[in-house]
Amino acid sequence: MNNQTNLTETDIFRLLQQTADFDITPYEGNINFDDSSKYTKLELSTAQKIHINALLQQLPSAVIAGKLPQMYTITFPEGLPHTLMQLKNGGFSTSIIGMDGKIAGVASLAPMVAEAAILGVFTVMSVITGQFFLFQINKELKKINQTLDKIVEFLYGDKKAELLSEISFVKCVHENFNSIMMQEQQRIATISGLQQSKKVAIKDVEFYMCDLENTVNDIQEYKNVGTEIEHCFQSKDCLELSIQLYIASTLLEVYYSQNHDKNYIKYIEDEMWNYIRKSEKRMLKSFSSLQTIINHTKPYKIKDKNNNVMDKDNLQQQCNKVVQVLENEDVTSIQKLIHSALYTVTQKVEYYIRNNGDVYSKILDS
Hints:
Layout: H1 3-6, H2 9-20, E1 23-27, E2 40-41, H3 46-62, E3 71-76, H4 80-88, E4 95-97, E5 103-106, H5 112-140, H6 148-154, H7 160-175, H8 177-180, H9 184-218, H10 226-257, H11 262-296, H12 312-327, H13 333-343, E6 349-354, E7 359-363
Antiparallel strand pairs: 1-3, 2-7, 3-6, 4-5, 6-7
Helix pairs in contact: 3-5, 4-5, 5-13, 7-9, 7-10, 9-10, 9-11, 10-11, 11-12, 11-13
């Protein structure tokens, strides 16, 4: 039992590093943190700053034996989800596991402060990093990223109010990810709301898809085809918005739940891409038919709701552009976005912590 009393604070800290698979080391080099293409300063709340400072108080004696550098690096070889999973599954208890896999000793109450500091910092970094990735995702989802006023301009039908409501909710939980993630009960409620948003998005995709298909099928029965052609483009905008709501709500659920199980992530990626591609193929079929209709319709028959002749060439160009995009069967930007959003957080990640509590992140190749 002597090993229970011979373990120093440094020994225990090192064993915690080995168990959770992370590394904390002093950094003496010079880094240009102004290079935003490589480094991102994590925006920390007051509570999160407290967690960082709590860890810094543990480091001088545990990591560098009294020497205080200007900066530390923390590295997670398999990303934060791996380390957090280690901690969430019961933590380290009071048993310390040695390099041989056997119990090396039992930690006293004091060293548990170090464990609490580590867990707190890992959670903070996971939340802030998730917020950074979600910001990148949001930039790519251009339809849903518009203001609600802009979205109202092209939405129509019975689903208008429902879709606006869900988009408003998703925008809210995206913007407040950092805050909500730190409140367990609100986080759980948010996950439930996101699951509902996903269901609504799928229903709305089907609604606008059927409306598009019906409009194209019936368009030849009308004398003025211009208004029906415009309606098809409006349906396309609503479809793209609904699909992006589906993408955003699905990815946000993964980020809020922090479920990075490999089988689950693979299922989510396959499900999302298959559904999106299936929807795109249905849109392609409709717009290919619309393309034929426009090409074979006399210009004087293409009139707007005010009975004014419309620009046939312009409508042809718009339709051709839609068809060309949908015909592209290569890896699309949306597919790349989904893959990156689901897997980037599990890649090797490196953080730099200055002794004033500022934290910067750098995402490395896996």
